[in-house]
Amino acid sequence: MSSYGAASTAAPSADAVPVAFDTRSDTVTKPTPGMLQAMLNAAVGDDVYDEDPSIHKLEAFVAQLTGKEAALFCATGTMTNQLAIRSQIGALESLICDIRAHIFRYECGGVAYHSQAHIIPLQPPNGGNITLEMIEAQVLTFNVHHAVTKLIEIENTLGGAVFPYDEIVRISTYAKQHGIKMHLDGARIWNASIATGIPLKQYCDHFDSVSLCLSKGLGAPIGSVLVGSRELIHRARHFRKLFGGGWRQAGLLAAGGQYAIEHQWTRMADDHANAKQFAELITKAGHMTVTNKVETNMVFVLLNPELRKKGVSWNKIAARLRSVHGIVVNEDGAHPAPVRFVFHLHITSEATAKLAAAINDEIAQALSAVVA
């Protein structure tokens, strides 16, 4: 079982301390004072009539940042991904993606439901990224038996890992040569750009459509933007209404997203630094193993097997972290799996040090209890 988004299920005791910070995801952030003020001051209109000035401003801004002709502001990243796919492929067609991709694992089978299309998921070796060679081997060309491959999807970042830029160029070049569209799930492309220094536009140049979340590391309360050609966005807007995604005076939310990009994007470097700091502190203590290469704001850790054999339970530690320290963390599921920690604008360097210290203290106490 994946530990994705699984908070401790143990109810905190009546005397549990208030929540200090939450490491489950970067979606748990709350609007900053500056963002709230921007939202309060937002000019609004009816977006179904295409009359909301704050939404127009955000869409034009993101289209310019990404080098695309047009943009569409939506409620969620799942919606922008599904709209991008539905606007480009349909029945008798297929797309290729990583087996860990959000569109494959965490969007409720939306590709099959909305687009009636087939997914060909690829399993990269050793937890790496999919490659051109892997894709070439699975592309389905026309045959009466085939769902013809019409789209390749890449997620960047995926599990906190940055997809190698050179490989994106190789895959994109191949796709163009064979008339295959490219979609980027760029929910955290903001992180990839900060980590690598590669401009957003340079990444997006290689894709026909890109989904960019505002409510993850950027810290906006809601929203995702789909970018692409004018024709694609026109089609996606029509499908958005079909999906029930037409909204009215959503300029309040658009203003929050605009503020997040303008004021909270570049500070993501702090999240990446805090993730690396946490990984170093956990590794130094020796109780848990960091299972990923920390490139952006995610760290995956696994309780060492010898501690499990002694009866130390991560889920019990997770419950103690919440009730005693006010720290919310993911559980490790029904079967031991790496636990995801996600660093965001509400977790400072000082909080990172406190997090590592609390984990190490609780593990030490658990060890003492099982030995006694």
UniProtKB/TrEMBL annotation:
UniProt keyword annotations, A-Z: Lyase, Pyridoxal phosphate
Keyword Lyase carried by entry: yes
Listed InterPro entries: ArAA_b-elim_lyase/Thr_aldolase, Low_specificity_L-TA-like, PyrdxlP-dep_Trfase, PyrdxlP-dep_Trfase_major, PyrdxlP-dep_Trfase_small
GO cellular component, one term: cytosol
GO molecular function: L-allo-threonine aldolase activity
Necessary cofactors: pyridoxal 5'-phosphate
Similarity comment: Belongs to the threonine aldolase family.
Protein name stated in the entry: Threonine aldolase
Organism whose genome encodes this protein: Capsaspora owczarzaki (strain ATCC 30864)
